[in-house]
Amino acid sequence: MHIAILTFDGFNELDSLIALGILNRVKKPDWCVSIACPSPEVTSMNGVTLEAQCALEDAAHADAVIIGSGMKTREVVADAALMARMKLDPSRQLLGAQCSGTLILAKLGLLRDVPACTDLTTKPWVEEAGVLVLNHLFFFARANVATAGGCLASQYLAAWVIAQLEGVDAARDAMHYVAPVGEKEAYVERAMKKHRAVSHGERRRMM
Amino acid sequence: MHIAILTFDGFNELDSLIALGILNRVKKPDWCVSIACPSPEVTSMNGVTLEAQCALEDAAHADAVIIGSGMKTREVVADAALMARMKLDPSRQLLGAQCSGTLILAKLGLLRDVPACTDLTTKPWVEEAGVLVLNHLFFFARANVATAGGCLASQYLAAWVIAQLEGVDAARDAMHYVAPVGEKEAYVERAMKKHRAVSHGERRRMM
């Protein structure tokens, strides 16, 4: 089971690395979470340089893909060669996007029939791409595609991926581990309540 | 204003990078947040390699220091040469520690009169170091020293540092920006309520 977190130059550390940290709470030998980048290294919006764990192209073969956000996403979607390197397919992959990552999903044509969440800055660009943005909502999933808005909403994307791939109990366990001491039950309930709310009647079995 | 986030091999991405992302929401020309490491590169508990933004020794001159956690913290505290590189002083610096970072603060002798928060795994080692651990509490601050327990409690440490150095409004703004869309007020209130609760009667002016 491979989950690729697409991470570009100018990336937002919260989006890519909260997802990575929570997803890695699943401790199974066949569970692999990777930062997937277009180059061997990427540098964040705040100057943190990290090494890619796999190539952007590897996401095509992943079981789940999370697209992180960043301050250069409009440059990403304007770069046809870069966009062509992302071969994503919701009929065989879980696809999640966070904040400006939603713009990438939109421009890849993967949000044609799905309303989406994003951050307030990205909202007009996603709307311009012809996608309905859900105001005041931080997470929405339909079938195999989910989007989230607001950096710390990355926890909900990660919980959704775990729930879909490993089950609700595994998602609860992961959220319980990372939640603040003394707030663990509240964090788990908030994440799983949202999961139930958005998934009810919308979930589709992975193939 | 320099805030150093001490980050060691085996680090927990959530602890160091949530703090970094939130602290960097303060947009002032003299505000600088750095990942401070004992080596030019460090690799996280989940195999993410990142470049140091400053040296461990630079934390001695920082206005605030946050000690992140990781899976090798017991090796850090057992390494006298490494421990000697951290010259921290709560009389002139804000000092925060997260999860196993609390063990480093304890072993540096900086929690002699301060009860502390940490994660459940680190708790017995912090107690063994002679420090009272506050069960079921994710954040505690007294004067210039604060500790937090549970990965996502790093948001409270970051908010505390901003509130102390730049004021409560700046902390509210930072939390508002990073919170999930639709949950922003709840996140801000939770962070600031805890801040008020722990700071009341405990705050000391920075020198």
Describe it.
The structure is a homodimer of 207-residue chains. Chain A is α/β, with parallel strands linked by helices and 207 residues long. Chain A is 36% helix and 17% strand. The two termini of chain A are 13 Å apart. In chain A, helix 7 packs antiparallel against helix 8. Chain A has one domain: Rossmann fold.
Question: In percent, how much strand structure appears in the residues of chain A?
Answer: 15-25%
Any low-confidence stretches of chain A, pLDDT <50, length ≥5?
199-207
How does the helix and strand content of chain A classify structurally?
Answer: alpha/beta
Order of helices and strands of chain A: EHEEEEEHHEHHEEHHH
Q: Total domains of chain A, how many?
A: 1
- Spatial strand sequence of the major β-sheet of chain A: 5-2-1-6-7-9-8
Q: Name the biggest interface.
A: A-B, 44 and 44 residues
CATH homologous superfamily of chain A? Class I glutamine amidotransferase (GATase) domain
Instruction: Please describe the biggest sheet of chain A, giving its number of strands, its sense, and whether it closes into a barrel.
Output: 7 strands, mixed
Radius of gyration of chain A: 15 Å
CATH architecture of chain A: 3-Layer(aba) Sandwich
- Mean pLDDT over all positions of chain A: 93
